[in-house]
Design goal:
Layout lengths: L2 H4 L9 H27 L2 H23 L4 H32 L5 H21 L8 H30 L3 H40 L6
Helix pairs in contact: 2-3, 2-5, 3-4, 3-6, 3-7, 4-6, 4-7, 5-6, 6-7
C-alpha cells in the first residue's frame, strides 16, 4: 500500500449504515440475553465470555450511532473508547477463565453446542450486514472487527462443546475462553491503532490550517 493511500482522509459515513447499526444493535442485545442465561445454566466460561462480548458489541454499536455523521475527530475518539472497552473485556475474560479453571467444573456440552450454533447464526448475519464497513473510518471499521471476532469466537465455542463432550472435562471450555480473551485483546489493539492514526491525521490537518507544526 502506498504512503499516499495510507495518509488519505477517510470518507464520510454512508447514511444507510445507520439503519444497519440499529439492526445489529438489536441482534446483539437479544444474543446477550439468551447467551448469558444459557452460559450460567451450563456453567460454561466460553459461553459467558461470548455473552459479554454480545453486550460489549451492543455498547459499541450504540456509541457508533451516537457519533454517526460527526467530525472525524469525534468518530476516531469513539473508536479509541471502543478499543479500550474491548481490551477491558479481554482482561475480564482472563480473570473469569482462571476462576473456572480453579473450580474445575464440567459444563453442559449439549447446551453449549446449541446456544453456540444460535450465536454463530446471529453473528454471521451481523458480519454480512457490516461487510461494507471494512473500508470506512476507524469507528466504522471497529464494528466490523467486533463482528468478525464474534464469528470466530462462536465457532470456537462449538469446538469447545465437542471437546467437553469427548473428554468429559471442562478444559476445552477453559481453553476456548482463553483464546477469546486473546482475540479481544488483539482486536482492541487493532481498533485503537486505527483510531490513533486518524487522530494524527486530524492533528496534522489542524496544524496545516493554523500554520503551526504538527505533533508526530
Amino acid at each position: 500500500m502506498s504512503a499516499s493511500c495510507c495518509a488519505a482522509t477517510p470518507s464520510a459515513p454512508d447514511p444507510k449504515h445507520r439503519r444497519i447499526l440499529w439492526v445489529v444493535l438489536a441482534i446483539n442485545v437479544a444474543g446477550f440475553l439468551v447467551e448469558i442465561v444459557a452460559g450460567l445454566q451450563a456453567g460454561s466460561a466460553s459461553l459467558q465470555a461470548d455473552a459479554l462480548d454480545f453486550l460489549a458489541d451492543a455498547g459499541n454499536y450504540a456509541i457508533s450511532l451516537m457519533v454517526f455523521g460527526m467530525a472525524l475527530r469525534w468518530r476516531a475518539l469513539a473508536a479509541l473508547a471502543k478499543g479500550a472497552s474491548m481490551g477491558i473485556f479481554g482482561l475480564w475474560v482472563v480473570g473469569s477463565t482462571g476462576w473456572y479453571a480453579w473450580r474445575g467444573e464440567v459444563p453442559s456440552a449439549d447446551l453449549m453446542g446449541s446456544i453456540g450454533l444460535m450465536a454463530l447464526v446471529l453473528n454471521v448475519i451481523c458480519l454480512v450486514l457490516l461487510t461494507g464497513f471494512r473500508r470506512g473510518d476507524a469507528n466504522m471499521r471497529s464494528v466490523w472487527v467486533c463482528s468478525r471476532n464474534d464469528v470466530i469466537g462462536n465457532v470456537a465455542v462449538m469446538l469447545a462443546a465437542l471437546g467437553v463432550f469427548g473428554t468429559g472435562t471442562g478444559w476445552p471450555d477453559i481453553g476456548v475462553a482463553a483464546v477469546m480473551a486473546t482475540l479481544a485483546l488483539w482486536g482492541a489493539a487493532q481498533v485503537m491503532g486505527d483510531a490513533l492514526r486518524e487522530l494524527r491525521i486530524v492533528r496534522a490537518g489542524d496544524a496545516e490550517a493554523t500554520g503551526s507544526p504538527s505533533v508526530p
